[in-house]
Amino acid sequence: MILSDKVLIIGGGVAGLTAAIELADSGVKTVLVERQHTVGGNALDLYKAFPTDDCFYCFEASRFRPGIRKCFYRSALLDHPNLELRTNTTVEAVAGSPGNFEVTLMVGPQYVDPMRCIMCGLCQKLSSAFVLISPQCQPQAVVYVPDQADDNVKEAVEKCPTKAINLEAQPTEEVIRASDIVVATGYHEMKPVGMEEYHYEELPDVVTQLELARMLDPNGETSGQLVRPSDGGPVKHVMMVQCVGSRDENYYPYCSKICCVFALKHADIIAQEREGVQVSVVYMDIRTYDRHERYYRKSRRAGVNFIRGRVQTVSKAKDGGLEVIVYDSLLDRYLKFRVDLFVLSTALEPSAESNEMAQMLGIRTSNGFVASLDPTSGDEVIVGDHVYACGTALGPAEVPESVTQARAVALKILQGRK
Amino acid sequence: MTETDGSERPPATLIEPIDMSTLDASFRREIQSMPDGDELSACFACTTCTAACPIANQWEYKPHQLIRMIILGMRDEVLSSKEIWECLTCFQCQERCPQKVRVTDIIFDCKNLAAEEGKIPDAIRNLARELLEKGQLYVITADWEREDLDLEPELPGLSTEEFKTILRNTRTGRIVGGE
Ligand SMILES: Cc1cc2nc3c(=O)[nH]c(=O)nc-3n(C[C@H](O)[C@H](O)[C@H](O)COP(=O)(O)OP(=O)(O)OC[C@H]3O[C@@H](n4cnc5c(N)ncnc54)[C@H](O)[C@@H]3O)c2cc1C
Ligand code: SF4
Ligand code: SF4
Ligand code: SF4
Ligand code: SF4
């Protein structure tokens, strides 16, 4: 194996990005495949992130890169000579042998050339078929959504000042050779459809934590305003419920590990930055592991109500909002609350099609997540012969942990080379 | 009771839940504003206080529950409870609380608040009244114990009058003195 041998990284979330850049920086040729139009993964939607309460993009970015204080992704992803980024791309087939994989990629149509788009917004004004997925999207370019095409898209093509749009773009197949494969396909936030007691999707004021994060984000649809999705009414009381779909043999048996921390992160943000909004958290255990205990203490001090117990019923209140009956197991009483927003801390589940991915690569899974080859070895990132995994593809994890694993992968790969 | 549109489903609980809007959400702040109440909301319901308490096994509301009830705003229930008056003020709970909640002091604060509202158990009220009237709770009688110790039968220089005057002008006097 020579140093520059190509490494394929599947998934451009924080974990995949870190692995790609670390390897590219070390002289390894890397191909980063991301099925969305932008890299960033779930972290794009987090608003502020624990443990530093920064925007996630900046807190892992500034190290060792002279001249780039903030986002290393900005320049590195498009300009790094060792890094090829393929967005809107999936892995179709893996053949060959460990150390010499032959991988077929399906590269989706590139309607907007990210090297040309200057994000002037002109096309967006003309047609809703052009969207900016996130202000932090990377590559920095608008995305064309064919389903939304209307009569104005042609005009956009003509008027685009940099001629970045090509509506005739076609998907292409690409075959690459790679010595190693890194699985960084991340997680998906469980949507608790059909959990009877919570009425998710039936009652618009019942949302998940990621949906709440969008509402808190100044760049989100509501510009950071907390309003009831049902009628736009003001939100005065937010209630959260922990362990929805986690630690539940009917759904996922494991503890999703970080939902207590992010719930309390949100509780703190609301208690401190939104005037006059009461927050209650219904829980069975609060598991703010190691240093994150401070979020728990902080939110108690900020006046967040913690109710140990479970939810009995959620129903529409007469005057808008919801009526929630909670069994308080510490008092052995049933309590009836009027709340405006009911937030479910749902499980982190394996991302879509991760089973197919595992089969294609011939690696094992555990609870649907990628499993370490030898869980007792301490090398948890090794999941197969020349196959590695990092971040939440391995199971629920926070950003710093995902990043640490990504670096471990880079090290393991480098150790095997001359 | 949960369904108000007059139709279909039977009630989910047969016992009426406590309607949180009828509670006094400011109670928590009221206690917290007292010199000892600062750490009230740090309580994370670990029940260490109740484990430490020598008497709580006889109580309907255990110390950790009293703290929860204060936080939730169950003002009437806390201030009318017999528990706050039966507390031995032994400070076991307060000493052991891992979050530095001053449980005993808070229970004391509750007693003061209850007293202000006239919610005083008869036995305590009677004691206070006796104190106001006699200036002392235990009247010293000439008995064999003092004799055995070679003490005078009367306590020399004991004047309850001054004490009674002082007491009448204190809160005790104000609260139970009038009747
Ligand atoms: C509500 C909420 C709040 C959170 N808050 C915080 C916080 O404050 N601090 C913190 O540290 N962590 C937080 N987290 C956790 C954080 O989101 C994750 O640790 C982090 O995003 C994991 O990154 P990742 O790269 O492992 O996975 P992901 O972000 O899921 O990225 C995986 C990427 O792989 C792509 N992908 C998946 N499958 C394929 C495929 N087959 N082919 C190609 N691409 C594919 C996906 O499109 C995605 O871009 C929070 C999580 C939630 C749910
Ligand atoms: S008009 Fe062209 S340059 Fe401007 S945002 Fe649209 S695609 Fe990008
Ligand atoms: S982290 Fe908290 S909410 Fe999430 S599963 Fe574990 S205990 Fe439940
Ligand atoms: S010991 Fe302290 S923290 Fe624990 S329940 Fe009692 S008051 Fe709360
Ligand atoms: S001070 Fe009162 S509540 Fe605390 S342990 Fe002693 S008797 Fe129990």
Overview of this structure, please?
- The complex is a heterodimer of chains A (418) and B (179).
- Chain A is an alpha/beta fold and 418 residues long.
- Chain A has two domains: 7-108 and 171-186 and 351-415, FAD/NAD(P)-binding domain (3-Layer(bba) Sandwich); 191-347, FAD/NAD(P)-binding domain (3-Layer(bba) Sandwich), CATH 3.50.50.60.
- Chain A contains ten helices and 24 strands.
- In chain A, strand 14, helix 7 and strand 15 form a beta-alpha-beta unit.
- The radius of gyration of chain A is 23 Å and the shape is globular.
- The N and C termini of chain A lie close together (7 Å).
- Chain B has 179 residues and is an all-alpha fold.
- The longest helix of chain B is centred in the middle third of the chain and has 14 residues, at 103-116.
- Strand 18 (333-339) of chain A pairs parallel with strand 1 (18-19) of chain B.
Straight-line distance between termini of chain A: 7 Å
Largest interface: A-B, 25 and 26 residues
Portion in beta strands of chain B: under 5%
Count of discrete domains of chain A: 2
Assign the CATH superfamily of the largest domain in chain A. FAD/NAD(P)-binding domain
Number of strands of chain B: 1
Order of helices and strands of chain B: EHHHHHHHHHHH
CATH architecture assignment name of the largest domain in chain A: 3-Layer(bba) Sandwich
- Unreliable segments of chain A (pLDDT under 50, ≥5 consecutive)? 58-72
In DSSP terms, counting alpha (H) and pi (I) runs of 4 or more, how many helices of chain B?
11
Overall radius of gyration of chain A? 23 Å
